[in-house]
Design brief:
Layout: E1 6-10, H1 14-23, E2 29-34, E3 38-40, H2 45-49, E4 59-61, H3 62-66, E5 72-76, E6 79-83, E7 88-91, E8 97-98, E9 101-104, E10 108-110, H4 118-121, E11 123-124, H5 128-148, E12 156-160, H6 164-180, E13 194-199, H7 210-222, E14 225-229, E15 233-236, E16 240-243, E17 248-250, E18 253-256, E19 260-262, H8 264-268, E20 273-274, E21 277-278, E22 292-294, H9 314-332, E23 347-352, E24 355-359, E25 365-367, H10 369-382, H11 386-401
């Protein structure tokens, strides 16, 4: 290792990029590592999955970010483990990499809660590959039904999980089914198309105010979604879903939006963990490892004395990444670290065209078109890159103005 202090950041997501940005002006050797050469804007993955946006609209090349920062360089490779005693990162292909400080920001994975057949037959929406796979399955099934006739379950989509991701997926499929079947696929019997949303708890969107949760359910049901709260999934089969109540739903596409779990790297690392996430102190350093930080979905960060870890959302990861940059600067200057204080900026979820819910600080709650416009504006602002912002804005505007004449072909299955 050279004499210059090296900071290795694993993961080019919200937290990893925020940490690099906070450190970019310092005289450090900063290495950003990710197995992909692009950053994915995960909140809009469901729109790729439903063919509302192209994959390139929500992907930003990492090197386009690191290019303007001379102290930040990028390495595309998959991290397999870390030798903490030797301060080295181990990779699947390339040579190991030493570090002085390590920032773990590799995100999370999908958890299927031990449900039989879910890992094999359900599709998660956590990566770009996941979203594209769902899109391709949906397109293929509706085209096949159009050309050869729809059998039982061919046009049925079951969405498991009534959080923001599940509600947004169900709403997007409902909109496309309503708009497309009557115009693009007149030969299909729309009564064969079903959308089922399964949520183990009651109500949907449990983190939101009850009035907003009730509104979301009403909108989905008006748009033809069969909402099953207080219902579990017992088994997922290649062409069926068995619910906890015993009901069997014939379907060809099951979307798993029931929660996230530890990623492979988190499971591989010999670090203290709490509920599958890396345990950190108030300053975001891993307990017992003073030169290692964990942020975002990997970290079990808490707010003050609260027992529950912060939600696995973009804002906690961004704020944690920024603080980690400041913490490393403090440590290099011989100063004490500061505790992390999360600033809650609210939560939002869209339910489809001109329907959304927003819960903002100060008790402000929005629903319907105002919340939908706020949701659109926030996601445009948060997207990385001027090109992506412009492309998404134009795509959304075109879809809104010419929805019934648009090129979208997904229709509920």
């Amino acid at each position: 290792m050279s004499g210059q202090c090296r900071v290795v950041v694993i993961g080019a997501g919200f937290g990893g990029l925020a940490a690099c940005e906070a450190l970019a002006g310092a005289d450090l050797d900063i290495v950003l590592v990710d197995r992909h050469n692009y950053n994915t804007f995960q909140p809009l993955l469901y729109q790729v999955a439903t063919a509302g946006l192209n994959p390139g609209d929500i992907a930003y090349p990492v090197r386009a970010y690191t290019g303007p920062h001379p102290h930040v360089r990028f390495r595309q490779d998959e991290v397999t483990n870390v030798d903490f005693s030797a301060r080295t990162v181990l990779f699947k292909e390339g040579p190991e990499l030493g570090y002085d400080f390590l920032v773990l920001a590799a995100g999370a994975g999908t958890t299927f809660f031990g449900v039989s057949g879910a890992a094999e037959h359900a599709k998660a929406i956590y990566t770009m590959e996941d979203a594209i796979a769902v899109r391709d399955m949906a397109l293929a099934s509706v085209e096949r039904a159009s050309g050869h006739g729809a059998g039982e379950g061919d046009l049925t989509v079951v969405v498991v999980g009534g959080g923001p991701t599940g509600v947004e997926m169900a709403g997007a499929f409902a909109d496309l089914r309503q708009m497309e079947l009557s115009t693009q696929y007149r030969e299909l019997d729309s009564s064969l198309s079903r959308l089922v949303l399964v949520e183990q708890q009651d109500p949907l969107l449990g983190a939101f105010h009850p009035k907003l949760s009730a509104y979301a359910r009403r909108v989905l049901e008006r748009r033809g979604v069969e909402v099953r709260c207080r219902e579990s999934v017992k088994e997922v089969r290649p062409d069926q879903v068995v619910l906890g109540s015993g009901e069997v739903v014939a379907c060809k596409l099951v979307i798993w939006a029931a929660g996230v779990g530890p990623c492979g790297l988190t499971e591989a690392l010999s670090l203290p963990k709490a509920r599958g996430r890396v345990e950190v102190g108030d300053d975001l350093r891993v307990k017992g490892f003073p030169d290692v930080f964990a942020i975002g979905d990997m970290a079990a960060a808490r707010q003050g004395g609260e027992e529950r870890a912060l939600p696995q959302l973009a804002q906690p990861a961004i704020q944690e990444g920024r603080l980690v940059g400041e913490q490393i600067r403090r440590l290099l200057a011989g100063e004490a670290t500061a505790p992390f204080r999360y600033k809650d900026k609210g939560i939002m979820a869209t339910i489809g065209r001109r329907a959304a819910v927003a819960q903002l600080p100060g008790g402000l709650r929005l629903r319907g078109t105002p919340a939908w416009l706020a949701w659109l504006g926030l996601h445009i602002v948060l997207l990385t890159g001027v090109r992506n912002r412009t492309s998404v804005l134009l795509n959304w505007a075109w879809r809104y103005l010419s929805w019934r004449k648009g090129p979208r072909v997904i229709a509920g299955g």
